[in-house]
């Protein structure tokens, strides 16, 4: 996992067809020819939003399968279970918002993961923190590159929630039961460094991963969405996990999305 965020984007990697997605689309083709809606989105805005949809669909799929399949989930404390359940709702809310803006669903709905994902707590939490790191950096690309203040503020608002998720995933780690390999005291994220989970909120500033262009985020997601890239990354390609959208329910209306101007 440590090399995923550092992978250099190549044209060849972006024009591979997404056979597992069943949509007959190439990710690179999507980002080169994504439609610009009449609502005033630029091509760059649409590229960022479509990449964000893919990331959110992946996030929903990840949280869903932790909750429904991971043996360690049932032995977590109730507040840790609650974090994972509500993170799933929040990620689905982000996806629904982005889909409402682009008018098109994620072109990728099938995902691959590292070996032992959902079965082993350490692999699962390392992957989860890696993904949240990537989502934070991707939304910071939106803060940098979106064409309007409303979109930039919306990206920052979503990024703040992804930051919550990263921290809370690190909170979960020491609560993993001994029979599941816990307590887990160190977690690896996108930078591949084993970091102590105490304190879980160990960032003074969010990490950009050096990304300034949305294609860098797309490159990081490729092993999760493309079977050939997954195999090259050493992921388990014998099983794919499908994204199942649903109607999200947030814990409080005070924290809901009330408009692009806040």
Helix-strand blueprint:
Blueprint: H1 11-14, H2 27-33, H3 43-69, H4 78-102, E1 110-114, H5 121-145, H6 149-172, E2 186-188, E3 194-196, H7 214-225, H8 227-232, E4 235-242
Antiparallel strand pairs: 1-4, 2-3
Give a verbal description of the structure.
This protein is mainly α and 262 residues long. It has one domain. Helix content is 50%, strand content 7%. It contains eight helices and four strands; from the N terminus they run H-H-H-H-E-H-H-E-E-H-H-E. Strand 2 (186-188) and strand 3 form a beta hairpin. The longest helix is centred in the N-terminal third of the chain and has 27 residues, at 43-69. The model is unreliable at 1-38 (pLDDT under 50).
Key words describing this protein structure:
single chain; 262 residues; mainly alpha; two-stranded antiparallel sheet; 4 strands; 50% helix; globular
Count the strands? 4
Radius of gyration: 17 Å
- Helical percentage: 40-55%
Return the domain count: 1
**Biggest pleated-sheet summary:** 2 strands, antiparallel
Q: What string, H for helix and E for strand, traces the elements in order?
A: HHHHEHHEEHHE
Shape: globular
Going by helix content, strand content and strand pairing, the class is mainly alpha
| End-to-end gap | 36 Å
Strand order, main sheet: write it out: 1-4
Low-confidence segments, given as residue ranges, are: 1-38
Strand content: 5-15%
How many H/I helical runs?
8
Mean pLDDT score, rounded?
A: 88
């Amino acid at each position: 996992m440590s090399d995923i965020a550092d992978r250099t984007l190549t044209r060849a990697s972006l024009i591979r067809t997404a056979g597992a997605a069943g949509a007959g689309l190439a990710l690179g083709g999507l980002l080169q020819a994504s439609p610009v809606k009449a609502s005033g989105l630029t091509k760059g805005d649409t590229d960022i939003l479509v990449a964000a949809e893919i990331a959110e669909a992946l996030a929903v799929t990840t949280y869903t399968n932790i909750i429904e399949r991971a043996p360690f989930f049932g032995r977590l404390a109730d507040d840790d279970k609650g974090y994972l359940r509500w993170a799933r709702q929040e990620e689905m809310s982000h996806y629904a918002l982005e889909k409402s803006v682009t008018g098109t669903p994620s072109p990728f709905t099938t995902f691959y993961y590292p070996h032992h994902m959902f079965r082993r707590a350490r692999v699962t939490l390392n992957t989860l923190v890696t993904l949240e790191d990537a989502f934070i950096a991707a939304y910071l690309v939106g803060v940098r590159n979106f064409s309007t203040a409303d979109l930039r503020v919306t990206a920052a608002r979503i990024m703040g929630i992804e930051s919550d998720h990263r921290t809370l995933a690190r909170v979960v780690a020491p609560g993993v039961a001994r029979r599941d390999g816990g307590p887990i005291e160190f977690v690896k994220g996108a930078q591949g460094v084993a970091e102590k989970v105490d304190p879980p909120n160990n960032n003074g500033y969010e990490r950009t991963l050096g990304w300034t262009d949305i294609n860098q985020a797309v490159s990081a997601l490729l092993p999760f969405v493309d079977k050939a890239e997954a195999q090259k990354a050493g992921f388990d390609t014998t099983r794919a996990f499908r994204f199942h959208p649903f109607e999200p329910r947030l814990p409080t209306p005070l924290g809901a999305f009330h408009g692009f101007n806040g």
